[in-house]
Amino acid sequence: MPPQVSTDETDELFTVAADYLRKRLTPELSQPKVAIICGSGLGGLVDTIEETDKVEFSYEEIPGFVSSTVPGHAGKLAFGLLGKNKMPTVLMVGRFHFYEGYNLKQITFPIRIFKLLGVETLIVTGAAGSLREEFETGDIGVLSDHISIPGFCGVNPLSGPNLPAFGPRFTALSDTYDYELRVKAFKAAQKLNFTPGSIKESIYCFAGGPTYETRAEARFLKSTGGDVVGMSTVPEIIVAKHCGIKILGLILVTNKVVEKKPKSADPMNYQQMMNYQDQEPVNHEEVIALGVSKAKDMKNLVKTIIELI
């Protein structure tokens, strides 16, 4: 059993967790250079690392980690060598979410551990809904920016006392998404002969969940310039930026967001009532299913990007 430690965010807590992992790994695996967060339905990314070298830990056994409770999230860390260049890599097979009842410091706790272990590059994957006609289901968005709706209300993983051992009190986010990594993502897609236009730069809107957006909320997010919307990703990215880790965000578009105004009940709006064609509501099982069906594409893309690093 791992030692019982406080859930308060302290340098000591991070050190305890990092030491727990380091002592149970070979020297090579204990110093991963790349971390990958596997989003909904994308746990198959763990198959990118070589089975003979793989070492796994359930979240429950790692000091300070909470449990992943969402279907499609296995809840484990996997360490191994990835790609032709045998890159030492750690994968979060399943992430934590705000809507599970965790605070943002619990959600982002693993990022601090990755930094202590030596991670230099974070690849964050996830599923999201499309706010744009040109973003089809199955497309992959390469994040160039984000909009944090909870952040507007002061809900930020960097709130509270700063941790100067990791980064500054005030962290600039204007250059969050590493340009060279984004270039490599497009080069990798080209190398894999992805359909032209199926990988696009995108702006991610972070909403707290667990409800999907109302129609009015979807139209509002679209008006802000957002391309896709999801319930994760941004908290981890903010903390990674605070830690000085290079970041690449890859988002699988799993559904079209419902934004059409509902059918009018006003008899004076007879024409709209008669001609109305509604949109199907979002279904989480379908989101997971599409993630699984497209896991091979995402897996090959991530593997090829790492081979270009």
TrEMBL record:
A cellular-component GO term for this protein: cytoplasm
Known pathway: Purine metabolism; purine nucleoside salvage
Keyword tags: Glycosyltransferase, Transferase
Every Nucleoside phosphorylase domain range: 33-306
Protein residues bound to a purine D-ribonucleoside: 213, 255
Enzyme Commission numbers on file: 2.4.2.1
InterPro entries (UniProt xref): Nucleoside_phosphorylase_d (IPR000845), Nucleoside_phosphorylase_sf (IPR035994), Purine_phosphorylase (IPR011268)
Keyword Nucleotidyltransferase: no
UniProt record, GO biological process: nucleoside metabolic process
SUPFAM superfamilies referenced in this protein's UniProt entry, alphabetically: Purine and uridine phosphorylases
MF-aspect GO terms: purine-nucleoside phosphorylase activity
List of residues binding phosphate: 40, 73, 95-97, 127, 232
Transferase found in the keyword field: yes
Enzyme's top EC category: transferase
Function: The purine nucleoside phosphorylases catalyze the phosphorolytic breakdown of the N-glycosidic bond in the beta-(deoxy)ribonucleoside molecules, with the formation of the corresponding free purine bases and pentose-1-phosphate.
Family of the protein in this entry: Belongs to the PNP/MTAP phosphorylase family.
Protein name listed in UniProt: Purine nucleoside phosphorylase
Natural source organism: Diversispora epigaea
